[in-house]
């Protein structure tokens, strides 16, 4: 009984990426954080805001992105469903992939778990994205990729010069 209590109370390292490129991008992200908090997700750390080009179509409006470290007892599947519900509640519509959106919440890393089924863990493209790696580095300078075990600095330095130069802290 004591062992189970200790395991349940163990702090998990869970990182979420939150982004917006429609409407009041800053306010959309702040609202997403509030809705997460109202659903038993405790935000432990939050990065600065970063502005980056929309991917893959740089002609779309620029994104604001942050990474948050959170604590919750919700498992990764329920957390994914909660994130999708918050996106819909905030007005995200079903559109083509990577189209502009009011709110996007991704599970980047759920306590170093690896899964090939939804939710795919860690996020399958996070190691290639400046708008994930740079804010994540800001809040956890020792983070390592759960699969490749590469240090976050190594991943950042593997980005193209264009990717590194095209993102700015707000």
Task: List strands and helices in order, with pairings.
Elements: H1 2-9, E1 14-20, H2 25-37, E2 42-46, E3 50-52, E4 63-71, H3 76-89, E5 104-110, H4 130-139, H5 152-157, H6 161-165, E6 168-169
Antiparallel strand pairs: 1-4, 1-5, 2-4, 3-4, 3-6
Q: The biggest beta sheet, please? A: 6 strands, antiparallel
Ranges where pLDDT stays below 50 over 5 or more residues in a row are none
The overall strand count is 6
Categorize the overall geometry.
globular
Q: Total number of helical segments?
A: 6
What top-tier CATH class fits best?
Answer: Alpha Beta
Integer count of domains: 1
Can you identify the CATH superfamily? 7,8-Dihydro-6-hydroxymethylpterin-pyrophosphokinase HPPK
| Distance between the ends | 48 Å
* H/E topology pattern: HEHEEEHEHHHE
Residues in β-strands, percent: 15-25%
Average pLDDT confidence is 93
Determine the CATH topology.
Answer: Alpha-Beta Plaits
CATH architecture: 2-Layer Sandwich
Structural class designation = alpha+beta
Radius of gyration: 16 Å
- Helical content, roughly? 25-40%
